[in-house]
Structure formats: structure tokens, C-alpha cells
Specification:
By secondary structure, the chain is an alpha+beta fold. The chain has helices at about 5-15, 55-65, 90-95, 120, and strands at about 25-35, 40, 70-80, 105-110, 110-115. It has a single domain (about 5-125), classed as 3-Layer(aba) Sandwich (Cytidine Deaminase, domain 2), CATH 3.40.140.10. The protein is about 30% helix and about 25% strand. The model has no long low-confidence stretch (mean pLDDT about 100). The structure holds tetrahydrodeoxyuridine.
């Protein structure tokens, strides 16, 4: 299995672990970092709705904890006809650790549906370079 297929499989495998009792919308995310390691995350909702966290945020936190510095690829998996593209906040979270080559792989429970680069999802973005 290619690393990309492994990543997509990891995002899909994470989905049922999501804690989404309010929306019932389970999202899994998996990051391939610059060390070649994979980090998974799921959405974790909260009775105080705005305190819920997205799957991408969990995967990014796991990557940072493990020492990853760059997102090479991130797969995000959610059900439905409409593509489960990262929300606005998560586009900015991904941007922090992305390069122009970073691939964002949008998946459903069956596999890959569409690939993007960060500039497709967040053009002319504000990032770490702005503060250097
Ligand atoms: N969700 C994610 O985990 N990632 C996204 O990029 C889109 C939305 C979650 C948040 C919430 O728990 C559920 O999906 C419904 O919005």
C-alpha cells in the first residue's frame, strides 16, 4: 500500500472513533508529516457547542506532540454527498504547517474524492512568514 493510501485508510479508520453525539457527523483526519509519521484525529464535540474541536485540530496536536514540523499530506474523511472539505478555521490551522506542495485529500468512507493544495482552499493566506 502506498503512503498516500495508508493515510487515506487511517483517516477513514479514525471516523468511528469521533465523539459527535450532537451532529452525528463523524470526521476522521490523518496527517503524514515530514518524518514520514502518520497522526490521526477525530472531531470531539461538547455540550457547550462552540467548545467542540475538529478532527484536523486533533491530528495537528498529535503531530506537534510527536515532533512533526510539516504537513506533507492530510486526509480528511466524512460522510455524505457534499465534499467534507476542511472548515475555514481548519484551513488556517493546516496553513500553519503547510508548504505550497502540501496535499489536502478530501475523502468519504469509501476513499479519496478530491485533492487540493492549500492555496486552493486558502488563497493569499496569512501565515508564519507574515510575522518574520
Ligand atoms: N468538522 C470537522 O471535524 N472538521 C471539519 O473541517 C468540518 C467539521 C466537525 C465539527 C463538528 O463536530 C461536525 O464536524 C459537524 O460540523
Amino acid at each position: 500500500m502506498s503512503k498516500k493510501d495508508e493515510l487515506i485508510t487511517a483517516a477513514i479508520a479514525a471516523m468511528p472513533q469521533a465523539y459527535a453525539p450532537y451532529s452525528q457527523f463523524q470526521v476522521g483526519a490523518a496527517i503524514l508529516d515530514d518524518n514520514g509519521d502518520i497522526h490521526q484525529g477525530v472531531n470531539v464535540e461538547n455540550a457547550a457547542y462552540p467548545q467542540g474541536a475538529c478532527a484536523e485540530a486533533g491530528a495537528i496536536a498529535a503531530m506537534v506532540m510527536a515532533g512533526g514540523k510539516e504537513i506533507v499530506q492530510i486526509a480528511v474523511a466524512g460522510r455524505g454527498e457534499v465534499l467534507c472539505t476542511p472548515c475555514g478555521g481548519c484551513r488556517q490551522r493546516i496553513r500553519e504547517f503547510a508548504t505550497p506542495q502540501t496535499e489536502i485529500l478530501v475523502c468519504d468512507e469509501e476513499g479519496l474524492r478530491k485533492s487540493y493544495q492549500i492555496a486552493d482552499l486558502l488563497p493569499d493566506s496569512f501565515g508564519p512568514d507574515n510575522l518574520r
